[in-house]
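Weekly structure sync, notes
Attendees: PL (lead), two postdocs, one rotation student
Agenda item 3: pending single-chain targets
PL asked that the sequence for the first pending target be pasted directly into the notes so everyone works from the same version. It is reproduced below exactly as submitted, 282 residues in total.
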Amino acid sequence: MTTYAVTAASGQLGRLAVEALLARGERDVVAVVRTPAKVADLAERGVQVRAGDYDDRAALTAALRGVDRVLLVSGDTPGARLAQHANVVEAAKAAGVSRIAYTGLLRADVSGSPLAPDHVATEELLAASGLEVTVLRNSWYLENQTAQLDRYLAAGEVVGSAHDGRISAASRADYAEAAVAALTAEAPEPVYELAGESFDLAELAATVTEVTGTPVTYRDLGTEEHVAVLREAGLDEGTARFVAALDASTAAGDLLTDRDDLARLLGRPATTLAEAVRAARA
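Predicted structure, written out during the meeting:
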């Protein structure tokens, strides 16, 4: 029997991946979390909950003992996560893990996104690890947009500087299910570019309007104007420029792909923008 582990299993994507493993009938599942009490319900369902912090290599090594395959959910702190990922990779090697699947960034090797460097460097350390590696290059989460639905409706507009840049996005649940499909496959591809339906921010606004009945438009700004608007909304200078840089990356096409890897792994179409907005509205 193959034993699977999911890191950051109390987080949004990691928790969904554990659920996807259970839904596939896997019963030898390890949830690696910083605070085990947060997933006590998983332990009650037979999941092995083990303490493991990305900054503690020894704890990670202990948590991964007896594990065959690991889903490494990328850390959420740019600048710090490469060292954290290295800890997981070294712990996996020390624990005798045979395969790692890693949740990276769409087209990371050619992307101008400020998020890309950490992911590219992680892919490089994985390639040098000697382990069997599957890279799951995830595009944008639909939840990145739908989490702002109330703001869009209150303001009557979506504000950004992505121009007509298109975003190929899918839901977290889609990415988690696809990650598990690749993790459990006997002969996965080395790299998957994972993304769903494509839209630009004007189409996002139109979809919100159609689903909710509340008129919402897209206000497209230049980068500096966008930074100023974000600062007025309360963001500090560094964060405002980071958000604007993400939109510049979108404008450059970094979140667009026509690859069908996600649908192939899912065995169905990915969640659409309209479906995600309806779910968020409900």
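Discussion points:
- The first helix runs from residue 12 to 23.
- The two ends are 40 Å apart (CA to CA).
Action: rotation student to compare against the earlier draft before next sync.
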